[in-house]
Amino acid sequence: MAFESMENSSLTALPTSRIIGDESSPLGLTANTSSQQEAFGSSQTLIAGASTAATLGRFLPLSFNIGSAPYGRFIQKCLNHSIFLPAIAVIVSAIAWSGHFVTISFALLASLLLYHAQSRLHCYAILFCYYLGASWPLVPGASTFFGAHATIIKGVLICLSACALQAGPAALLFTANLRLRPIAIAGMFVLAALPPLGIIGWGSPLLSAGVLFPGTAWLGLAGTLALLGFVSRSPWRAAAVAAIVAVVANCLYIPPRLPAGWQAFNTQFEGAGEADPDFLSEFSSAEAIQRTIKQSNAQVLLFPEHVVTRWTEATEAFWQESLDDLARRHATLIVGAGLPKTHPQLAHASSYYNALIVRTEREHTVYYQRIPVPIAMWKPFSPNGVPLNLLGPGTIPVRNERAAVLICYEQLLVWPFLSSAFEHPTILITVANDYWAKSTPIPKIQNVSASSLARVFGIPVLSAVNK
Q1: Could you report the per-residue pLDDT of 28-47, keeping only the tens digit for each?
Q2: I need a labelling partner for 59 at 20 to 30 A (CA). Which of 93, 357, 372, 380 fits?
Q3: % of the chain at pLDDT higher than 70
Q4: Among candidate residues 190, 267, 197, the one with its CA nearest the CA of residue 221
Q5: Counting Cβ atoms within 10 Å, is residue 153 exposed (0-12), middle (13-18) or buried (19+)?
C-alpha cells in the first residue's frame, strides 16, 4: 500500500519525496526517496457568421495585420477557408488542455478562430471542435470509470454529446457584425461557464486568469474576459498588452503558504469501477488510513475523495479508536466518503452523497459535492446516483480557515470555484479519485485547473488524490 502526503503546499516549486511500499509486504513501507520539482505547489511524500472573405479582408490589415508578416498570406488563406479553422481549434485546445500549467493560456486563441467564422454553422463547428480537443481524454477513461460493462463507444458518445451542448452558445450568439462579434465571443464562453451549461463547462479559457494575472481576483477574471474579445479582433495588440500586464502581475505575486500543520495524503488504492465494489480492498484501505492517522503528527489530515465507500454507523464504530486518538491530539480529520441517503423512497436505491467529512473533537461537518460527474454519478431522472447540489455551500470551516472545496470533477469547471469565491475562502482543498484516469492527462488537467483558480485569488491549495 502506498501513500503520498502533501505538506505546506503552495504555488511555488518544491521538492517531492517518494516512499514506495515494500513488495514483500502489502502493509510494510520502505523508504526510497527521490526529489523532483513540481510546477506550482506541493511537497509530497508517497504513503489525472455570415461574412465573406472579402468583408474579412477589410478588417484583417487593421486588426490582424498578418499580410505584412512572413507567411502572412498563407495564414490569411487558412483563416479564410472554413475547413481549416475547426481543425486548428482541435489542435489549439489539445495543447491548452494537455495538463501543463503555462499552456492553459493557449485557450485564448479560440476567440481568434471564432472571429473568422464565416457563418453560424461554421462558428458552431469551430467551438465544437475546440471542446472536442479538450474532451478526448474522456474516451479512454470512461471504460474504466463505468466498470466492467462499459465500452469505448460509451466514452465516445458522452464526449460528442457534451461537445455538442457546449458549442450551443456559438449558434445562439453568432453575429455577422464584426464590431459586435468580440462581445458575442466573450458571451459564448460566459454562457458555457455558468449553469446550466457550466455543469459540463470544462476547457474554459477563463482559467487563463490564474496563469496571466495571479493575485488579481475578480479583476483578473474580468481582464481575461475582456482579453477574449480583444484577442479576436486585435491579436497582436492584445498579446502585447497581456504580456506586459502578465509579467508585472507575476513579478508582484507572492505564492501563499499553507497553514502550519496541514498535511494531505495521496493514496494508491486503485478502484474496481462504477458498480463493481471490492469489499476486501475497502477494508484494507480503511485499515491503512487509520494506521497513517496514528503515525502522523499533523493537526489537519486530508485524505482523497471516496476512500471510504460508505460512512455509516458501523463505519463510525470501526473508526472509533482513530477518532478518539485524533480528539486527544486536538487534530482534524478530513476524508472523502459516500453518505447513504436516508429518504424512505430511496432506501433500496443505489443513491448516496459524495461528501467530504470533517471530524474534530467537538464538531462533525459535511461538505456535499455540488456537481457530480453527469451521467456517471449524477443521473438525471433516476433515483440512483449522486444528487446535483448546485446551490449548496462552497466552503467549510476548518480550524481558523474558511476552506473552499472542489471534489474531483468540480476542479475542471469554473462555476464551482467562482461560487465558492463569493464566500471569501482562505484556502482551497481539492480531493479526487483518479484511479480510472491514470493513463490519461485528466489528473494533470485537474491539478493545473484548480491551481490556476486558486492562484488568481491568491490562496494556497491542499490536494489529496487516490491513484
Answers
A1: 333 333 333 333 444 444 44
A2: 93
A3: 78
A4: 190
A5: exposed
